[in-house]
Amino acid sequence: MAEHKTSLDPDDWAALRAQGHRMLDDMFDYLEQLRERPVWQPAPAEVRARFQAPLPRAGSDIAGLHRAFMEDVLPYAVGNAHPGFFGWVHGAGTPVGMLAEMLAAGLNANVGGRDQIPVEVERQVTRWMAELFRFPAGAGGIFVTGTSMANMIAVLVARRRVLGLEVRDAGLARLGHGLVAYTSAAAHDCIAQAMDLTGIGRAALRLVPLDDDYRMDTVALEQAIAADLRAGLRPFFVAATAGTVDTAAIDPLARVAAIAQANGLWFHVDGAFGAMAMLAPELAPLLDGIERADSIAFDFHKWAQVPYDAGFVLVRDGELHRQTFAAAPRYLKREPRGMAGGSPWPCDFGPDLSRSFRALKTWFTLQAYGADRMGAAIAGTCELARYLAGEVGRRPAFELLAPVALNIVCFRYKVAGQDVDDFNAALVADLQEAGIAAPSLTTLRGKVAIRVAIVNHRSERRDIDALLTGLEELAARRLRG
Known about the structure:
Keywords: Decarboxylase, Lyase, Pyridoxal phosphate. Its cofactor is pyridoxal 5'-phosphate. This is Glutamate/tyrosine decarboxylase-like PLP-dependent enzyme. It contains 15 helices and 11 strands. The protein is of the alpha/beta class. It has a domain at 102-369: 3-Layer(aba) Sandwich (Aspartate Aminotransferase, domain 2). The strands form 2 sheets. The protein has a 7-stranded mixed β-sheet with strand order 1-7-6-5-4-2-3, with helices on both faces. Strands 8-9-11-10 form a 4-stranded antiparallel β-sheet. α14 (420-434) crosses α15.
């Protein structure tokens, strides 16, 4: 009786190798020729309909699947690799990162634990980040999907510190009465989500008002803490933001650190993209005080240009970090030798046991380009933001709506005789659908703003000029009716 074949490897490795080279070349061509493409284009109904097919029971030719990707997927992505993409804070990726992701996928390592070098790669990146942020040698760190998860881990570690190890068994119902936390009114909603998901609740998060520069008002922070203490509540956590989502404002980190220390609060920094300004010597002073944080959350897949996804959380007290998550069920028993050695494992520092090798593409990116070149690319996006702000000030049809702290510029087109907010919202949609450039929208103090987030290392002044010219031409067309 013939043995039934169960392997999913190809019968013809040479044919697969040739197909793989074609796929790799297509992606290199895509990245090299990005400027010739629209930033974004809506997918036609007939393309969307192809993704309504039922579950396939038989296999398909990989060349046909590649063709479907090139025709039906690649042209209709959000376009954040394009130098004209300015909507939201999305990194652009690099060819180096793409290649590293291919290597990681081929290796297919589960980096939850065990005695293996992929774990050492992650540990090395953790040590590099401790060096960058001037954290002690015993700092803990772990790769996660993104800053939303990293912020939640920080809340959990802070909760463990204030309530003790017992909270892992007893829970908040018995131990968590009166916990309150603080962040600015401009903070990302994932801070509130972290309060929700950790069981503390959104109502326990105080949103501190902003100063004139859209930063946390530290006088208001002190007043909020004092009021909660008088009410018999238990302040335990404050999250400052390094690079707010709307304007890229940086909260007064050193002052927030001092307030947290004086009141016994855990000082966390949500540095989703802004923390990576530490790589640029001319920008690093803007983050003064970040080195005093108890934890920092950030994404390598934003300003550091690592392919999605590659979030990270760094915790000053590595042992406290480990105690927050470590468990030892029988199937994860550690041994002094063999594959079950090498403890502690990454799964001891976060909720995931099955984990992809995110560290490799980050390790490749940092090694291939070096911190100095990456910092120069980050500083370059801030220089472009200043150029854009200058052009907005020079062109009478536009008005700037917020100070330019880093790489985000918020402005709008001035128009008389109709609703200016609706006009600017429609103008941004027109620009996106034209494929010229892709800014986004936000609302600042009741005004709809065109928000240009310059994160892409490929963006140049000509892309800024195309954005402004496109807005002017499309506005003129709208005004003509």
